[in-house]
Amino acid sequence: MGRIFLEQPNGRFFEGRRKISSRVSVLALTAAIGNLAAFAPANAQEPPEASPQTPPQSADVTNRAEAATEPETALADTTTTADNIGVGTIVVTARRREESLQDTPISISAVTANDLQERGINTVTDIGDFTPNVRFNSSVPVSASNATAAIYIRGIGQNDYQLSADPGVGLYLDGVYISRGVGNMLDVLDIERIEVLRGPQGTLFGRNTIGGAVSVVTRKPADELSGRVQLTTGRYNRVQANGIIDVPITDGVYSSLAFFYHNREGYVDGTLINAPDLGDTNSLAGRFAIRLEPTHNLSINIAVDGTRSREESAPNVLIEAFEDADAAQIYNGVFSGAPQICADPTNPARLNDARCYNSQWELAPFEHAGTFQTIFPQFDNFGSRRYQSASDTDIWGIYGTLEWELTDNISFKSITAYRSVEGFWTRDSDHSPASLVQTKNDWTQDQFSQEVQLLGNAFDDRLNWVIGAYYADEQGDHRDVVGILDAVFLSGATLEAESVAFFGQATFEIVENLNLTAGIRWTEDEKTFFNDNQFIVEAGVFTGAPLNPDGSGLMDGDPLMGPLGSSSTVSDDAWTPMASLSYRWNDSLLTYVSYSEGFKGGGFTQRVFPPLPDIPTFRPEFSTSYEFGFKSDLFDRRLRINGAIFRNDYTDLQLTVNDPTLGFAPIVQNAAQARIEGFELEFEARPIEPLRLQAGVGYLDARYLEVDIRGRNAGVTVDDRLQNAPEWTLSASAAYDIDIIGFGTLTPRVDWSYRSTVANDAVNTPQLIQGGYHLLNASLNFLDEDERFGLRFEVKNITDEVYLGSGYFDGFGGIIEGVYGRPREWSLTASVRF
């Protein structure tokens, strides 16, 4: 049967990770697996999708060329005979070689290009809506950039975008690590699949993967002239266009060009004349790729990609304002121009006087009154640009992958990459015409990386191995201009960093169907922080106050962490081993147990006030995971059930908190220990050819074991919820193909997801705790009989659910702000393939 939007010829695939309460006993789970093992042989008529000892196919250049010619077949071979229609084979590279998802003893969700099309996904972060135990915050608290996302897997991540703090989940683009949160909102541009790897991935993927890794794999250029174009319109005057064309240049030289343009108006309305509508989209992205195959055993892939966005600031809104907070009282009493009204809490007129700062500006969820204007010229004039609503980014990168088959059993792979990010964004933190707290940011960051791998197999394919080395170099400059009342500070960072690693991993078949995998990685990280962007521009109301470390008053030009011109270096090294034992009981069932470790690098706190005598640092954090899982295909591959149960010991947590003993700026501190346990199940079924069902459930029991004095000073207790760790995640979808003879195929589809209560900050501010919520999407797809022309109508968030995606509490300013998910939206897409 035909399938909408070009990808798999027979069937679609969804890999979701679902978790059930860790209180469910391992004994009960083992009994269930035993029942599956006993039942499977009677229902498994197919041979296994791939041998557990599959050789390192990434070295097989001929196979790669065939996959590039027919990428949909490489992704999902859903039928092996004319009479057996089942769920598809998914090829993943989670262990640095190509192998079937069902033969990989790791908890993985794999989202194919066809899934992305059917779900109407535009950026990588959208997969968090339906991937269990994965949470993407598309707007990081304190930041106002639309190009920044915080990724959490199994309750582990990092909710701070600053240059001097590392993410907790690694994001990879064709094997290239993207080191910072700014610029990680990747557009869905010629993507073949997205792999979500849960649990520490420190052996093969390295540092900053203590929660897991997200690997984005792009499609390689095909060897035939072909292409597709899509045009979309929708709510908020949406205009979207994207396309791909494959152009073979000559024998052994193939190229492709992809583009993506998206423009739509904001969904958060400005209520004042000078208040812009926020939450808009205005981005243009492109990618050029070339595949060279000069000989039968050598393949070179080179790609250049770029993104340009010119948008309003992120759609932060004011949830609650406290007029008795320090900054609010000073503003109302000194700068409002009407102190007799604004500073009198008994005067009801203050709640309708635009000169006052109070609850009249609480307009969440979809309105705001931030004018992005300031009454203080020092803030407006200092920096590269004047203060205005903006979230601008320019991103480009180039990378090349060389794969060389040295012998029949050994291959060499090299990944070389350079990436650059420039940005400017602003935040009207008080969300009003007042000038309590405002920020504007200039950001530049460049990274270079080189990885080499040697892969092989031996002993009649009983042993598969990979060894490698990795080097990365990074420079960044972040000028964060902060205005507090009439005072102006430069609170940024200049950073230089290097990382070196060596790793190895091998899988050995001990006896038939019993495989042992073991690996280890050594990583050394070194970061140097320069305080050039850390000083007082204008002391303002803080002039003369005894706020300096020596007890003296503040003056213009004083360092915030000094003395000015100072630098600090942190160096971390760690061994991160892993081991797993897997057994294939029959063609339909694989079970495994695993142990893995990971670490996230230490760093520096760049936001401080009052000034500190030294540059504050924090240590690395670590996680250790124990996991038992299974992969199963039943009923002639018409039903797939995969699952895992795990425990993660999480130490030296880097919490972003406001510690009043150190000032009122958010700082990062190693302040807690935690344990995270859970269970994951995922299902995919195709009981009859036209019907595709996907479902799953996940559970997290995430709790602090210990909170030290630094965390307790900031208000964190052992009874608090871990940030971005919802207890339950569930999702389900159904699609049915209806053949219309003489016309084509009509496919209605429904997607549902649920997230239980989640805390959006470490101290569990009540206003920032989002209760459980449901999201419901539906679409209707049509594809003509020739599979060339398609139409798709979609409605997202049908029930118009209002839910908080991220938030921040500024105690000094008296501000609780947040970003809410997008309301109901419709879209209509037309596609043409040639």
Please give the structural blueprint.
Layout: H1 26-43, H2 61-69, H3 71-75, E1 79-81, E2 84-85, E3 91-92, E4 99-100, E5 108-112, H4 113-118, E6 134-137, E7 150-153, E8 169-173, E9 176-178, E10 191-198, E11 212-218, E12 226-234, E13 238-250, E14 253-264, E15 269-270, E16 281-295, E17 298-311, E18 317-321, H5 326-335, H6 339-342, E19 367-368, H7 377-381, E20 391-405, E21 410-428, E22 437-458, E23 463-484, E24 487-491, E25 493-511, E26 514-530, E27 534-538, E28 567-586, E29 589-600, E30 603-604, E31 617-618, E32 621-634, E33 639-657, E34 667-685, E35 691-707, H8 709-713, E36 728-736, E37 738-740, E38 744-755, E39 758-759, E40 769-770, E41 773-784, E42 789-796, E43 804-810, E44 815-820, E45 825-833
Parallel strand pairs: 8-11, 15-19
Antiparallel strand pairs: 1-2, 3-4, 5-10, 6-7, 8-9, 10-11, 12-13, 12-45, 13-14, 14-16, 16-17, 17-20, 18-44, 20-21, 21-22, 22-23, 23-24, 23-25, 24-27, 25-26, 26-28, 28-29, 29-32, 30-31, 32-33, 33-34, 34-35, 35-36, 36-38, 37-38, 38-41, 39-40, 41-42, 42-45, 43-44
